[in-house]
């Protein structure tokens, strides 16, 4: 089987990229906590994640495939915040907005600031394309660049299964699991030191 062709995403692709993230994240425990109703979740997540893909296309690096079966969204630790995020996101999320805002605050409160780094904000692979190495392939270009420039990387794993993938790529747990509220599922902050020859 030929390896997947990974390319940089371009302006104008934010909606397609967000659709992939939403579909890949739909069944995650944290997504069900954010929006328990599956129908509402399917309506909210694509519009919510479009704010992130638009921002990353402008301020970061996004890798994908021609069929959008996977997406990796990276930001430098120096990237600005999304302009007017809550003002734009709250109408999208409706009465679930406080949950999204608490999740964002949890991420902000636990994000490391001790060193410059690459932030893997989102890694998404469509269910039908999982377990075929696509997630690893999507991370490889930025990991190669990070190793070359001796830059660490950071992420929050959304599940223990995701955590296992990242452990295989050199990430280690960074502190204890985090939760935006006591009833929320655990998320796993992770840090990757660059690999040097």
Automatic annotation (TrEMBL):
Coiled coil: none annotated. This is GCN5-related N-acetyltransferase. Keywords: Transferase. The keyword Transit peptide does not apply. The keyword Glycosyltransferase does not apply. It comes from the Bacteria. CDD domains: NAT_SF. Gene3D superfamilies: 3.40.630.30. GO terms for molecular function: acyltransferase activity, transferring groups other than amino-acyl groups. InterPro entries: Acyl_CoA_acyltransferase, GNAT_dom, Trichothecene_AcTrans. It holds the Pfam family Acetyltransf_7.
